[in-house]
Amino acid sequence: MMNSAALNELVERTVEGMGYEFVEFERLARGLVRVTIDTTAEGGISLEDCEAVSEQLSHLFTVESVDYERLEVSSPGVERPLKRARDWSRFAGELAHVELFAPLKAEGFPEAGRRKLEGRIVSIEGESGAETITFDFFEVDVARTPGAAHLRSRSKKAAAPAEPVRVSFALADVDRANLIAVLNFKG
Length: 187
Known about the structure:
It is globular, with a radius of gyration of 19 Å. By secondary structure, the protein is an alpha+beta fold. A hairpin with a 6-residue loop joins strand 5 and strand 6. It contains 4 helices and 8 strands. It folds into 2 domains: 4-74, GMP Synthetase, Chain A, domain 3 (2-Layer Sandwich); 85-179, no CATH class. It holds the Pfam family RimP_N. It comes from Sutterella megalosphaeroides.
């Protein structure tokens, strides 16, 4: 039986060999295998793209005797996870939510530091395996649901935007991160 790291690498090579960007591979309860793919092409991932990758991975899993019940192939959605250095580089300038393994201490933070940050990705630099992310932390004020958009539009007082706090942290210190979707609920 193939170990998880080897299977992850095999799925990544297969997905990227088909011309898609590999985002994530997960083995979940009840035999569910979830593979997330993306593309830099205009229009994003289509249902046909997911079907093609699903069919290819089904054949691969049969040949490699991978034990699974269901295979789900999907796009990452609007709140795309940020997993690799190339993701951080590609989405520099975008809003993101970041959760670190340990609190980050910086001027402007509470004494104990902050483990959860929202703000804008500035850049990523450094050698592979030792990348450092530069990030502008601030209170992100975007509507995340239609109800929140309605409440924000009725609010009379608008808080003045606070100055961002520029911080740096190692990519290895990131527990999880994703883009923050800026959605227009007004149509």
